[in-house]
Amino acid sequence: VQLQASGGGLVQAGASLRLSCVPSGRTFNTFSWFRQAPGKEREFVAAMRWSGSTTRYTDSVRGRFTISRDNAKNTVFLQMNRLRPEDTAVYYCAATPRGIIYSQMWSEKEYDNWGQGTLVTVSS
User: Fold this and answer.
1) Predicted local confidence at residue 28, as pLDDT
2) Mean pLDDT, range 1-28, rounded to an integer
3) What's the sign of the alpha-carbon dihedral 73, 4, 96, 19?
4) Alpha carbon 9 to chain centroid, angstroms
5) For the chain, what percent of residues have pLDDT higher than 90?
6) Helix, coil or strand: residue 118
7) How does pLDDT run across 16-37, given as a tens digit for each residue?
8) For residues 88 and 109, what is the distance between their CA atoms, to the nearest angstrom?
9) β-strand pairing of 55-57 with 43-49
10) Could you give the C-alpha distances from 84 to 6, 13, 15, 16, 124, in angstroms and in order?
11) Phi/psi class of residue 105: alpha, beta or left (left: φ > 0; alpha: ψ in -120 to 50)?
């Protein structure tokens, strides 16, 4: 079972990046992105059901980030627009075979599979 995350990089403030998460070895129902900035705890960013029926975002990224999936490519994306220096972090893809309800999508405890992380650095 694996979640392969990629797409991080170094960009200037205001730029865009798209992160990808490719699952393998298992069928997942709910996907999420978390991030961990230097010296801080890991925090929730966004989540979605594979069906696309439910999505959730943390307040600081709502309207700038979009979580989506491509069925044909079996890939989950995090499109990040209008990036800010405070978005700098290692971004992790996480997933679970369970359908997580909206109110619990933010919780790390709901996800039992994690990718290796991809670094996003936003310069001012």
Assistant:
1) 95
2) 96
3) negative
4) 15
5) 95
6) strand
7) 999 999 999 999 999 999 999 9
8) 23
9) antiparallel
10) 19, 5, 8, 10, 8
11) alpha
**Which residue type occupies 92?**
Y
Q: Which residue has the tokens 């971004």?
A: 91
The Cα 1–Cα 6 span in angstroms is: 17
- Environment class of 48 (CB within 10 Å of its CB; exposed 0-12, middle 13-18, buried 19+): buried
Please report the pLDDT score of residue 52 as a whole number: 81
**Joined tokens for residue 10:** 């170094």
The single residue listed with the structure tokens 């290692």 is: 90
Rg (CA), the chain: 13
55-90 confidence digits (pLDDT tens) = 999 999 999 999 999 999 999 999 999 999 999 999
